[in-house]
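Researcher: Checking consistency across runs. Here is Geranylgeranyl transferase type-2 subunit alpha again:
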Amino acid sequence: FAMHGVKRKTAAERDVEKEKAKLAAAAKFNDVANLILKHKKDGKRDEEALQLTMKALEINPEFYSAWNFRREILRDRLKRAMEEESHEGKKEGGEGREGGGGREEARGDEEEKKTGEGRSEMKKLLGKELELLAGGIERNAKAYCLWTHRLWTVDQLLALEDEEVLSKELSLCDSFLRADERNFHCWDYRLAIARRRQLTVEEELKFTTTKVNANFSNYSAWHHRSRFLSAMAAPQKGGGGEE
C-alpha cells in the first residue's frame, strides 16, 4: 500500500535494512575495539582512549576489556592529579620555610587551597563519570558491568572524602526501582551502597516495607528484606542461656 505517494516497505525489506544496520554497528564496534586494544598495548591512556572506550561501550555495554581499560585511564588521571598536588605542596612548603614564619604560614594556606582545588577537579571528573553511567543505565538497566563500574566510581569518590555521594546514590536507586521494581542489579547495588552508608537494619526494613506495600508480590523486595531479617536474627544465636 502507498500513503501520500510513498510506497510502504515490505516486511522483507525492513528485515534487510535491520540486518544492514546490525552489520554496520558490528563493523563500527570492531574498528573501535581494535583501536582500544592498540591504545592499551601502547600504554596510551589519553583523552582519545577515554572517548574510544565510551564509543565502544555505547554499542556494547558488556565489553569487559573496555571497562577495565577505562578504569586504568581514570586511575592514571587520579594518580597524576594526586602527584601534582603533592609536588606543588612540597614546592610551596619549601619556599615558605625559606621566607620565615609569616611567609611559611601564608604558603601553608596556599598549599591547602591547592589541595582543595586538586580534589575538586578529581571529584568533577568522577562526577561526570557517574552522569555518563546514569545515561547508560537508563538505556540498559540490567547490564552488570555498568553497575560494577558505578560502584567503583563511588569508591573513588569516597576515597576523596565525598560522603554526599552515598545519599545521592540511594536516591538514584529509588528512582530506578520505581521504573523496574524487580531489577536485581539495582537491588544488589543498593545493598552495597547501604553498607557503605552504614544504614541500620531497621532503616532498610522500612524501605523494603514501602516496596512490599506497593506490590505484595515484589519478590526482589522480599528477598532483599529477608537478607536483613537474617542479619537481625544472627546476633541472637550466640546469646547463651539468657532468655
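Researcher: Does this match what you'd expect to see?
Model: One thing to look at in this run: The chain has two domains: 27-96+103-149, 163-231.
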